[in-house]
Amino acid sequence: MSNGGGAETALSSDTEPSEAGTFGGVPHFFATIATLVAPTLTGVFVNGYGYSAMFVAPTVAAFGGIPAMVAGKPGRRVKKSVEV
């Protein structure tokens, strides 16, 4: 299972080489946590609420996240001086 590491690693290395590990590691951390938690959480929902809960819960989460993505403001870019 891949988290799309190739393009992400190249982009983070080109964008800010000194922070490439952080830019690559943080998304991979959350992707790994989601990969570990999702099957267990799905099983809990299915056992507790039936098979249809497996489809309802992600739909509610997705539609709850849409306003956050629309209303979110991207960070302001700060230009750093580069010493040679």
Describe the structure.
The chain has 84 residues and is an all-alpha fold. It contains 3 helices and no strands. The protein has helices at 5-15, 20-49, 53-71. The longest helix has 30 residues, at 20-49.
Helices and strands in order, then pairings?
Layout: H1 5-15, H2 20-49, H3 53-71
Helix pairs in contact: 1-2
Keywords: Membrane, Transmembrane, Transmembrane helix
Transmembrane segments: 49-71
InterPro entries: MFS_trans_sf (IPR036259)
Care to count the β-strands? Answer: 0
Overall geometry comes to elongated
Which ranges are low-confidence, i.e. pLDDT below 50, for 5 or more consecutive residues?
none
- List the domain count as a whole number: 1
H/E series: HHH
**Rg, Å, rounded:** 18 Å
What is the overall number of helices? 3
Please supply descriptive tags for the structure shown above:
84 residues; mainly alpha; 71% helix; single chain; elongated; 3 helices
Task: Briefly say what this structure is.
This protein has 84 residues and is an all-alpha fold. The protein has helices spanning 5-15, 20-49, 53-71.
